[in-house]
Design brief:
Helix Hairpins, minor pseudopilin epsh fold, 8 helices, 200 residues, binds manganese (III) ion, alpha+beta
């Protein structure tokens, strides 16, 4: 099956004034689309052409000779996960099961904010910050480039934040810490994290 570009789960201007329409038009319409286009070119005529996106990512992870396919397929998956990790009027303290689990596993919401902000700020160059469930416990992690916890055994991604410069440069220029704070205060979609936790 061909790799497809899922539509954004909200309109291009829905996250304004925090992330503006131009950012989403370019990030989804150009960057995310390019990973889809390039991924399809690379899998055409190969064993991967008939696989689901998740299976392609898992089958190519860690294989140097499949790095091109992995990078594009993983970036397609990561970006779709990222769009759902935000919502209009999101952000702030979590509710539901994830709220209780954050208190249990990190000690407090404030401690989670500290760890997640640190992960995003200290990912050198391009990459992602994640909230994952690993061995039944919440963990904050970061990955470089296209790497994704989806490929780690026993690890379920719950939320992600894109810290590639293209995610925030038009709105925040070089101020990555301001983007991270805005993501946590105004955008993060705890409903999505709760859905992923419930399925884990
Ligand atoms: Mn991106």
């Amino acid at each position: 099956m061909a790799i497809e570009l899922p539509p954004l789960p909200y309109s291009h201007d829905a996250l304004a004034p925090h992330i503006n329409a131009q950012t989403l038009q370019i990030h989804h319409g150009k960057h995310h689309q390019a990973y889809v286009t390039n991924g399809n070119k690379l899998i055409d005529g190969t064993e991967f052409a008939s696989m689901s996106l998740v299976d392609i990512v898992k089958a190519t992870a860690g294989k140097a000779d499949k790095a091109g396919i992995f990078n594009n397929a993983a970036q397609v998956w990561n970006h779709t996960f990222y769009w759902h990790s935000m919502k209009p009027k999101g952000g702030g303290k979590p509710t539901g099961a994830i709220a209780q689990k954050i208190t249990t596993d990190f000690g407090s919401y404030e401690k989670f904010v500290e760890l997640f902000s640190q992960a995003g700020a200290t990912q050198f160059g391009s990459g992602w910050a994640w909230l994952v469930l690993k061995g039944g416990k919440l963990e904050v992690t970061k990955t470089p480039n296209a790497e994704t916890p989806l490929t780690q055994a026993g690890c379920t991604p719950l939320l992600t934040m894109d810290v590639w410069e293209h995610a925030y440069y038009l709105d925040f220029q070089n101020r990555r810490p301001d983007y991270i704070k805005t993501f946590l205060d105004h955008l993060v979609n705890w409903d999505f994290a709760n859905q992923n936790l419930a399925k884990a």
